[in-house]
Amino acid sequence: MACRVLLTTTVGWPSVARLAYGFAAASCVVDAHASDGAPVVSSRYVRAAHVYKPLAPIASLRAAISQSEPDLVVPCDDRAVTHVLALYAEAKGAEPPISALIERSLGELTSYPEMMSRYDFMERARSLGVRVPETRPMIHDGDVDRFVDEVDLPIVLKVDGSWGGEGVIVARSRTEARAAWRKLSLAPSRLRSLVRAVRRRDAHYLNAAISPSAAKISAQKFVAGRPAASAFACWRGKVLGAIYYDVLVADGEIGPPNVIRRVDCPEMEGASREIARHYRLSGIHGMDFLRDASGAVHLVEINPRATQGGTLAFGPGRDLPSALVSCLQPLAGTRAPILNDTVAIFPREWQRDPASPWLQLAHHDVPWDDPAVLLASLRRASLPKSPTRQPLAA
To answer: Which residues are CB-neighbours of 263 under 8 A, at least 6 positions away?
Structure first.
């Protein structure tokens, strides 16, 4: 029987639909747990779409699992990971089929609290011999000045659970660092969360209004260099397939990649294998690095879920859905490989600059094979962009 995969996402990223294509090409039956209007819901490669409910996320995920009966659940954003883990906590001991599914899909579940703490993860990576920048938890306002005294400026302040540039601020002076701490450490007021819910058309801010929570913040020594990343599929701690790439163009200074170039990088490969082994990971994951002027890479964080890079296919061992599914069915299919190592991510690079030369020089990852996803992606690209955290003005 074909492997059944449930993709779960709380955001409208077109990359999730490209992941659906990857699993379908690997001979899987693919379902999606996503909001109405998310591009993946329109994909020709999705058998059934199950509605994600922001105000009842765990119940809607449980219902999606009950209806789709998947062999694997693949979370595609950080919030989705927290929902899968919350469902596991509810199901453990009470619903053995669901808890077994989540253990099979994600690996060693006791590892995730440490991985999802930016500071704890960086300390673990350091202990495993991976090159990482100095990182400290910021619990009190005086911690910021002490950290600056220790490592000098600039520094990067980050909130646990944030992604895509949200909740991250680069500070180049003490004044900026203190302001960043104040901005990130204070939970938004209920009124502000309600306003955000209306302006951004995002019901998740209603949850923040109902139950505001304090942020966990860490500070990291700034590493000057070019962003880089790994995306890898693993099973019980063993890496089955991986893609390593440098980011040539990003969405702002700290945002997601617009143009990437696949590279062979023993350092990123070694770090990815060591992290997967230590945490006994299963599923598709990614890690973010910075490559300094000497070419050395510094690990700056983990993405314990499928990432944009993991949706691309560069041939055997570099097609992550196929590599992962090979553990469950011996005749997993593969996609035709991308022959150009440089890829422009659709629709972000086109949205940034319709005249970008990368749209001609690189492989432009447009979903021509999935017309409804193409149209849905274009519609979302035409909406006003949600503001992201940018460096504070000097």
So the answer is: 228, 244, 245, 246, 341
The stretch 76-93 carries a mean pLDDT of 96
The H-or-E segment that residue 301 falls in is strand 297-303
Q: For residue 203, is pLDDT > 90?
A: no
Angle at 322 between CA 32 and CA 338, to 5 degrees: 100
For 57, the token pair is 């996320």
What tokens were used for 127? 């202990």
Q: Please count the other Cβ atoms lying within 10 Å of the Cβ belonging to residue 61.
A: 25
Asked if 181 and 217 touch (Cβ cutoff 8 Å), the reply is yes
What letter represents residue 56's amino acid? A
223 DSSP assignment: -
Domains of the chain with bracketed CATH? 4-106 (3.40.50.20), 134-221 (3.30.1490.20), 226-381 (3.30.470.20)
- The pTM is what? 0.91
How would you class 186 by CB atoms within 10 Å of its CB: exposed for 0-12, middle for 13-18, buried for 19 or more? exposed
Token pair in block for residue 380: 């979302």
pLDDT digits (tens, 9 = 90+) for 37-65: 899 999 999 999 999 999 999 999 999 99
Count other Cβ atoms within 10 Å, centred on residue 239. 21
Closest CA to 380 of 15, 7, 1: 15
